[in-house]
Amino acid sequence: MRIAAEFDALYGARPEGVWAAPGRVNLIGEYTDFNEGFVLPLALPHTAVAAVSRRDDGVLRLHSRDVEGGVVEARVDALAPGSVSGWAAYPAGVVWALRDAGHPVGGADVHLASTVPTGAGLSSSAALEVVTALALDELYGLGLGRPELAVLAQRAENAFVGVPCGVMDQMASACATEGHALFLDTRDLTYRQVPFDLAADGLRLLVVDTRVKHALGDGAYAERRAGCEAGARALGVRTLRDVSITQLDDALRKLQGEAESVRRCVRHVVTDNDRVARVIALLDGGDPRAVGALLVEGHTSLRDDLRVSCPELDLVVEAAVEAGALGARMTGGGFGGSAVVLVESERADAVSAAVTGAFAGAGYGVPGVFAAVPAAGARRVG
Ligand code: ADP
Ligand code: MG
């Protein structure tokens, strides 16, 4: 195994083990996870891989094949938010989060490599965190469950790296299974595997990476989050999860005195939670083609109500549908990143060409396109 040979060359011995954790793409349920709502992600075949050995001297050494700069070294008992910067904060944050939760994790040598595209909204960061968490869980015999590992990985990203993400990415990476999407209730982290065997149904789910990231996105996430919280407060509920689709009209009437942006946040979250339920009903009922229309509905809501799309993402959806896709929507935080396109297998190439052609016509760069195959969650591979 190449990763083990590289580990040996770096650290002078074979690793005790090798683990892998995937990136993810979210089929539907966007900006719902910080409202204790529903999401439906699937794991990608793209993974972060970690070769890891324990050390008994309390030293943590971190290295990535994919970044310059060599080995980053720290003492595990000196880890604290702010003590490690750059890419190494993700794995170091996991060690910190495990120890901070009272788990007996000592030093380690870690060598990482990843095929998850970074910054494309496919959660290369969660893959890095989850693979580190699983490796340390097994090596140090912690016996933690997958949801616990995911929550600790999320804590690493929130409190150590300083990114206020929800728990969907880490749960998808930790808990997904092949041929399924993961229905996750972010309130209590219960989950269910929903059959999503695209190939058997003659379908393909294309991921289109726009390769743009608009700076606007930086403040927008916090702003939408605040809008959702304001909406919940005004409605007297704990989170927007507590507003069902049948209560939406009433809720919007109650919010007439609130800012328009708050009403829009509420409408998006309530309708997207409902769309997750409807997509699951279609998949359980063996009607995956009908999911396409709900993807487009979800995109419209993200574009017009939440206002987190951008011209490049809108163009993917428009060009794909125009070329005969069953449906498409932006996925992830928006303002760039990726979109998903559901398409009949035999139309996949034509749709992909149409999107690429539309980008060229608009003067945008060449988008990255690949087919997402619902893959397995984190696991030991060596
Ligand atoms: P996303 O999770 O959507 O890909 P993020 O900005 O959350 O984007 O995370 C990307 C960051 O994760 C990178 O900037 C880098 O710091 C880290 N990262 C991802 N993959 C690797 C890797 N293979 N090696 C080192 N760092 C990585
Ligand atoms: Mg990330």
Automatic annotation (TrEMBL):
Entry binding sites for substrate: E30, Y31, T32, D33, Y221
Start and end residues of each Galactokinase N-terminal domain: 6-54
Binding residues annotated for Mg(2+), in chain numbering: S125, E157
Localization (cell): Cytoplasm
PROSITE patterns from the UniProt entry: GHMP_KINASES_ATP (PS00627)
Gene Ontology CC entries for this record: cytosol
Domain GHMP kinase C-terminal: 281-358
EC class of the enzyme, as a word: transferase
Active-site residues from the entry: D169 (proton acceptor)
Function: Catalyzes the transfer of the gamma-phosphate of ATP to D-galactose to form alpha-D-galactose-1-phosphate (Gal-1-P).
Record-stated family: Belongs to the GHMP kinase family. GalK subfamily.
Designated name of the protein: Galactokinase
Organism annotation: Streptomyces laurentii
